[in-house]
Specification:
Layout lengths: L3 E4 L2 E4 L10 H20 L9 E4 L5 E4 L2 H7 L5 H16 L4 H20 L4 H22 L1 E2 L5 H12 L8 H15 L1 E3 L2 E3 L5 E7 L7 E3 L2 E3 L11 E10 L19 H24 L4 E4 L5 H9 L3 E3 L4 H11 L3 E2 L11 E11 L2 E7 L7 E7 L2 H23 L2 E2 L5 H13 L7 H12 L1
Parallel strand pairs: 8-17, 11-12, 11-14, 12-13
Antiparallel strand pairs: 1-2, 3-4, 5-18, 6-7, 9-17, 10-16, 11-15, 15-16
Helix pairs in contact: 1-3, 1-4, 2-3, 3-4, 4-13, 5-12, 5-13, 6-7, 6-11, 7-11, 8-9, 12-13
């Protein structure tokens, strides 16, 4: 229906003629129905017996998963209320990592119970107040129910990580993958007094289809999906001394337009010799400080490559800034932006740096770093879909372990906390004033 506003100048069309307008109770029912539909969509994927969904996008790409956040990301929700449910899932995935499906189902249950109250003419603000009071009480009860764990208790953390993987496609591999996830977090955890913090930006995840999930590995260092720049360079360096350089080993063009006039061939020769000398001096500087591995964020000229290979320096170019930062944390090196200032103190170290074939690609592995503050998980699997699902499962496990390390307490699973909350909130609702009591009781029922 079109929305027409009357003005002194005549009627003005505000919305297009095909627009639909809903108000009051009809709008509430419509919004609740859309939200409940989203909850129903993911309900069958919950728990250890949850079913996987096959999602086919507009391009024909197939995703097989039972991860709530992934399912809802793939659906093209148009209804505003449905979009809000998708946002709930995204927020939980970003902040917590796991529990995306549960949060959407719980939100759907709360709205279903709220609908019953609206039919009894309970005002929406009363329902909101009751739900907020019940939510605060629920958090209080869960805090009492929670059991403290030691942030560095590896065995407990492995059990927690394993729980998050039990309902996934990788459940058969949950033991090795949960151990790997916990070890990765414990490598990068930082302690400040009694507090622990984990920055997942210090953890690199690389994926490559091929092999099996059992081939997934934790690398005490960084894996670069790059090749060594020159075939004459060594492909393996032990006891590596690594120079991390954010400067081009090439003669860069000037920013302003310049013109060089050459009147005879000797001048051209001098020009080329000077260019050669500049590049050689850059390489000589790197060699003089004892570096036998060069990781460069920018380009490496062919002439520079020649001199680097002569010195036996394994070199990689055009490495991403994020990888350079991780390399600095893993190797203990410092990123240098000016080769004139580079010194032995700037070098990082690793037991071994080598080029390795991963399926059809050649990657560079920087391994055996001493006390690395950044590590890599290399995920393998029989197909790209398996690898992607393993990636999602490991992400959930990493986030859960991170949450426990930062806030070291846990509650039991299997629906027991929800059943406990339902019982306690039902009893507690008796002391509430007015019609808020009804909302608290419905909140308790939603927990069940």
């Amino acid at each position: 229906m079109a929305s027409i506003q009357q003005t002194p100048q005549g009627p003005v069309l505000v919305l297009k003629e095909s627009a639909l307008q809903q108000k009051g109770r009809d709008a509430q029912k419509n919004n609740i129905a859309a939200a409940k539909l989203v909850a129903e969509l993911v309900k069958t994927s919950l728990g250890p017996r949850g079913l996987d969904k096959m999602l086919v996008d507009s391009l024909g790409d197939v995703t097989i998963t039972n991860d709530g956040a992934t399912i809802l990301k793939e659906i093209d929700a148009q209804h505003p209320a449905a979009k809000m449910m998708v946002e709930i899932s995204k927020t939980i995935d970003t902040e917590v990592g796991d529990g995306t499906t549960s949060s959407v189902i719980f939100a759907g249950a709360l709205l279903e119970k709220a609908e019953k109250l609206l039919e009894k003419d309970v005002h929406s603000t009363v329902i909101i107040d009751g739900y907020e009071a019940a939510s605060e009480k629920a958090l209080e009860l869960l805090a009492k129910l929670a059991k403290a764990v030691e942030p560095d208790d590896r065995e407990s953390l492995i059990k927690i990580a394993k729980t998050s993987m039990q309902s996934k496609l990788v459940s058969e591999n949950s033991v090795p993958l949960s151990k790997l996830s916990v070890d990765a977090i414990l490598k990068i955890v930082e302690k400040d007094g009694d507090k622990y913090s984990v920055d997942l930006d210090n953890l690199k995840v690389e994926k490559k289809a091929g092999g099996s999930i059992d081939d997934t590995a934790l690398i005490n260092g960084i894996v670069l999906d790059k090749e060594i720049v020159h075939s004459g360079m060594p492909t393996k360096i032990e006891k590596a001394k690594i120079a991390l350089v954010n400067a081009a080993l090439e003669v860069e063009k000037t920013e302003m337009s310049a013109e060089i006039r050459i009147s005879d061939p000797t001048q051209m020769q001098l020009f080329l010799e000077e260019e050669n000398r500049m590049l050689k001096s850059m390489v000589d500087k790197i060699h003089s400080i004892g570096a036998n591995v060069l990781i460069c964020q920018k380009g490496i000229d062919d002439i520079s490559q020649h001199y680097l290979s002569k010195h036996g320096i394994l070199s990689v170019r055009r490495v991403k800034e994020s990888d350079m930062t991780k390399l600095a944390k893993a190797t203990g090196g410092r990123i240098t932006t000016n080769l004139d200032d580079i010194s032995t103190n700037d070098l990082g170290s690793a037991e071994i740096v080598h080029q390795k074939k991963v399926e059809s690609d050649k990657w560079v592995f920087i391994e055996g770093c001493k006390n690395p503050r950044s590590v890599t998980i290399l995920i393998r699997g029989g197909s790209q879909r398996v690898v992607d699902e393993a990636d999602r499962s490991i992400h959930d496990a990493l986030m859960v372990v991170k949450d426990v390390v930062e806030k070291p307490s846990i509650v039991a699973g299997g629906g027991s906390p929800e059943a406990y909350l339902a019982t306690e909130l039902n009893e507690w609702s008796g002391g509430a004033e007015g019609r808020e009591q009804l909302a608290i009781k419905q909140y308790a029922e939603a927990c069940e």
